[in-house]
Design goal:
A hairpin with a 2-residue loop joins β3 and β4. The termini are far apart. It is built from 3 helices and 9 strands. By secondary structure, it is of the alpha+beta class. It has one domain (8-142).
Length: 148
């Protein structure tokens, strides 16, 4: 069962009930736009993409009127995780980390929540990322050896 909304009108109805959620909007290669606020729904999106052989063309993070748009169409895939950063005796900050996969490198950006302020960028090897958080573009995934 999926936990995402597939029409803008349905999303607006839900959004108007609680404008203080962080929303994730994924635009798919088949033209669908999927809306969700529960991170675990990302796994449903991954399953949909894998079973239908479609890809994520773009991601939008939204908190109230602040919308962050990330294009993933010219990449090998997309990476999305919730993350934390803290220090002993200090406060813990919550983030959404969005990564664009290019070959064996993931270009990550950490967005402080709930405000969605870009705080940090990094590049990590694909091997250092959570596989379950990656949605590959199917053309690239089909035979990665040919990409070399």
């Amino acid at each position: 069962m999926t936990n995402f909304i597939t029409t803008h009108e349905q999303w607006l109805d839900v959004y108007r009930q609680d404008k203080y959620k962080i929303w994730i909007r994924a635009t798919l290669s088949d033209g669908q736009e999927i809306y969700f606020s529960d991170y675990d729904t990302w796994y449903d999106v991954k399953s949909l993409c894998d079973s239908s052989e479609i890809t994520v063309e773009g991601i939008k993070l939204q908190y109230r009127s602040n919308v962050v748009e990330i294009s993933t169409s010219n990449s090998d895939g997309v990476y999305l995780v919730r993350s934390l950063k803290g220090q002993i005796g200090g406060e813990t900050s919550h983030y959404y980390t969005v990564g664009i996969i290019e070959g064996d490198v993931v270009h990550k950006t950490m967005w402080l929540t709930p405000e969605l302020i870009e705080e940090e960028k990094s590049e990590d090897p694909l091997d250092n990322c959570f596989e379950e958080a990656i949605i590959y573009h199917h053309a690239q995934k089909s035979n990665p050896q040919e990409q070399v």
